[in-house]
TrEMBL record, chains A, B:
The gene is proA. Gene3D superfamilies: Aldehyde Dehydrogenase, Chain A, domain 1 (3.40.605.10), Aldehyde Dehydrogenase, Chain A, domain 2 (3.40.309.10). It comes from Clostridium cibarium. Pfam families: Aldedh (PF00171). It is an enzyme of class 1 (oxidoreductase). This is Gamma-glutamyl phosphate reductase.
Length: 414, 414
């Protein structure tokens, strides 16, 4: 039999066992998994070194090598992550509502595991451990398909985790790695509807779009963030400056970083010179629309292409708008529905922005950088969904569950 | 520009207006839509006659002609349906939870419309009206693509509805019909990710599978139901008989009808002759596994193919199992995750069945036929989801919404 199919079948079988486990059993396994990571850290580092050597041979960029590379500290972080997940409360089993119908049927809606989750991701080996921990905590079996660059590290990590899972008495197939790193196997995985319930791609826009386009298994789209900060005419300009600088520069490579600044025309003359100079001080390349270029010298022109682009870099494009309505239309047109912020002291405008912006997270007077499972208080994050089905915004443990209706009758027929 | 794309763009624009409407505005439009249906009933019947004549020429089956055909009463039912939707409470705007973070950020999760919903369906013209009403109530724009058999009826219905929408002052493009009935346009619609947020196919298994396989737009899979009733050894056999007969024969063509009967071996000798004779009295063809055929004469053999099949007809397959565990494994293996029932008086077994069966609706001592938006008390139904993402089981108004996070800050940066 095809290897991926048999892997899928085993995951499905494991998932039926996993859904019946108590929280205590799952938490014990998470702790064991953490212990085994630490116990086998030398082997993991040895295997990671192979990946690094191969990557260097291929002329991989420094940033990529950094993502790929592990050290003792990073393995400790992974183990700590598992222990923290063990401390989170388990969403599985919760009855979110229950009611009685006139005919006496008692209908409850109960959180249950999704079943088998497929994760398709790129170079970072820590995703292997994080995803395994979150899926196991929520009673899901997981099939991991990491990038070829990290295959040796991933194998060593899964081997360690599996030892912990086995010792805890859980099905060993709860966490499985696809060891075949060919492109064909990814394509096949995307169509494994009989065995995989949900696919979550994690990585660059190319990977995610390829999964969205080719998968027949339901997908949760994550990631792309062309985030805006709009500074309204009635606003605290000092607060606006802090928020823009934080949203743009605190970590430009992530999806909740600001990419665009919209400024109301009434305050443009006052605010733009200040903020653009501050951005330049932080080594941000500033691009502007025509009106912005008339106010501030020495900036590049923002083209039509810029408005729709996620830079993930020290670049920002600035546009002057005539009204909050223009800002809203612009954001809904060019945004990716991730995180959008207004800085304002006008009550009506704050409500309008919250109501009319079509995005996963809409902020008044705060940085877009808070769109994150930990910052939202979920204690975990498997990714940030930018689609509208199932989950929108940061996904914690709840988002790795589905529901089923449980119905108590006493002989009702229709 | 391509016609479907411009239709999609207009739907998207309409959706931004729709999401800001008050419930009162939407309800007024629903009432107007109902009025216009009644006002134009003669035209709708005239156009429906064209469809019927074409269908007869093509040699369409009687059952299909019945689905296609409208009369005054059916149009009144459609109008009543819209008025009932107007009476339901509006899920849009509800803050399902709100909390404050240590840094003072106040984070709320709010129900909002999905945006643009695409419905791909077959012959029944009433779906046109039902879907339009439910989508409008939840502030979504809808693109309807009905079957070619009903194109004239659908055009007339949408024309009437649009007149009502326009008079109520809502965007006319809130409800649009794809008038091109070619297969190519469906394929194109399935990939219109920029303009359609969610696709809901409604119809036979062929249609639904084609959408699931080909769509890049997120899909909610509806419908297929290979439902089981398992009669446990400790059970009230009279209740079991009533439930089996009801689940199988009250409406065999629908997805929540029973297709399979599993019986514990301890009661097989007593129960099977009774139930099989009762089923035959209701003109049900009974197929049985080897053990069943040893107990009851004159039944056909159930093959491996039977266990996975949804008959939607007066046919049932019967299997004897040695334990509840065997029943659970069988159901999880062959079921479609729709509705599954146990008849038992054993407490532990009732809990085991509820816990271990992986389906949208799991029943103890009640007919599977209750899996329905109205029977669950939702007041409406757009379909029954058999997937695990977003919605599972009967979908009412809530399931036509998504959420967004609204965040109130006072200058927080990270």
């Amino acid at each position: 039999m095809n290897k991926l199919i048999s892997l899928g079948q085993r995951a499905k079988e494991a998932s039926y066992d996993l859904m019946n486990l108590s929280t205590t059993e799952k938490d014990k396994a998470l702790i064991k998994m953490a212990d085994k990571l630490l116990l086998h850290y030398e082997n993991i580092l040895k295997e990671n070194k192979k990946d690094l050597e191969n990557a260097i041979k291929k002329g991989t960029s420094k940033a990529m090598l950094d993502r790929l590379s592990l050290d003792k500290g990073r393995i400790e972080d992974m183990a700590d992550g598992l222990k923290q997940v063990a401390l989170l409360s388990d969403p599985v089993g919760e009855i979110t509502s229950m009611w009685r119908r006139p005919n006496g049927l008692q209908i409850g809606k109960q959180r249950v595991p999704l079943g088998v989750i497929g994760i398709i991701y790129e170079a970072r080996p820590n995703v292997t451990c994080d995803a395994a921990g979150l899926c196991l905590k929520t009673g899901n079996a997981v099939i991991l398909r990491g990038g070829s660059e990290a295959i040796n590290s991933n194998k060593a990590i899964v081997e360690a985790l599996s030892e912990g899972i086995k010792e805890a008495g859980l099905p060993e197939r709860s966490v499985q790695l696809v060891e075949d790193t060919s492109r064909e196997v990814v394509t096949e995985m995307m169509k494994l509807n009989n065995y995989i319930d949900v696919l979550i791609p994690r990585g660059g826009a190319g990977l995610i779009q390829s999964v969205v386009k080719n998968a027949t298994v339901p997908v949760i789209e994550t990631g792309t963030g062309n985030c805006h900060v709009y500074v309204d005419d009635e606003s605290d300009l000092e607060m606006a400056r802090d928020i823009v600088i934080n949203a743009k520069t605190s970590r430009p490579s992530v999806c909740n970083a600001e990419e665009k600044l919209l400024v109301h025309e009434k305050i443009a003359n006052k605010f733009l010179p200040v903020i653009i100079s501050a951005l330049k001080n932080e080594n941000v390349e500033v691009r502007g629309d025509e009106r912005t270029m008339k106010i501030v010298d020495n900036i590049n022109e923002a083209t039509e292409e810029d408005w729709g682009k996620e830079y993930n870099d020290y670049i920002i494009s600035v546009k002057i708008v005539s009204s909050i309505d223009e800002a809203i239309v612009h954001i809904n047109k060019y945004g990716t529905g991730h995180s959008e912020a207004i800085v304002t002291n006008n009550y009506e405008n704050s409500q309008k922005f919250l109501q009319r912006i079509d995005a996963a997270a809409v902020y008044v007077n705060a940085s877009t950088r808070f769109t994150d499972g930990y910052e939202f208080g979920f204690g975990a994050e498997i990714g940030i969904s930018t689609q509208k089905l199932h989950a929108r915004g940061p996904m914690g443990l709840n988002e790795l569950t589905t529901t089923k209706y449980i119905i108590y009758g006493n002989g009702q027929i229709r």
